[in-house]
Amino acid sequence: MTAKDRSGLLLEVGELVQALQQHSVDVDSVLGELTESARQSIPGAQYAGITVATRNGKVRTAAATGPYPVLLDEIQQRHCEGPCLSAAWEHHMIRINDIAREQRWPSYCRDALKETPIRSIMSFQLFADHHTMGALNVYAEKPDVFDDDAVELGLIMATHTALAWNLVRRDEQFRSALASRDIIGQAKGMIMERFKVDAVQAFELLKRLSQSSNTPLADVARELVESEHPHK
After folding, report:
1. Residues 201, 98 share a domain
2. One-character DSSP codes across 20-77
3. What single-letter DSSP state applies at residue 126?
4. Which of 94, 82, 173 is nearest to 129 (CA)?
5. pTM higher than 0.70 for the full model?
6. Quick one: 201 and 108 in the same domain?
7. Is the pLDDT of residue 90 over 80?
8. CA distance 186 to 18
9. What are the TM regions of this chain, as residue ranges (predicted)?
10. 61 lies in which domain range?
11. 117 and 20 share a domain?
12. Each residue of 136-151: pLDDT tens digit?
């Protein structure tokens, strides 16, 4: 890939991230486009995907080009091992030159060879916290496909994808906070009207109900509202 091609790629990815910052496009569409850009831009890549996993062993595919990234994530969950999980939790980047020769993750490699034509894999960490991790992955059906240039471009794509993913998570947290504030407000209004108390007293009652039942405040509020309006 020439310097001009690389500049064009960075411009394209930057536009996607900017669009996501402005909330003008669908989140799944942006992640899908970033994944497709990785497939098209990294030399030798035939498929790409984004893997998301939790500490309790759940693995899901957030975006994928073709069926094999999804199937390989299912194999990782089946055995609780694999390059995408290791890249996400332990390393910034992992490269498999040939699954048939790979000594790490023996159960994963065995099933990957048996169930898919994939031979070469690169996985890049997107984020990892105490509960959740993410990795950008590219795959090829031939062995020894990904060279150092492919690694460099993969790191560039992973950096931009990580930025987009952080924006996605921030937006989801913001929307969740707004929804919680709205439902708590409804519950406060119901308590104020029924028991003729002010807003401070109503909120204090909600807090006590939350503490005594060891239930999040928003969940207590939601239960109250739904009990008043069971049809909703």
Report:
1. no
2. HHTT-S-HHHHHHHHHHHHHHHSTT--EEEEEEEETTS-EEEEEESSSHHHHHHHHHH
3. E
4. 173
5. no
6. no
7. no
8. 35
9. none
10. 3-169
11. yes
12. 999 999 999 999 999 9
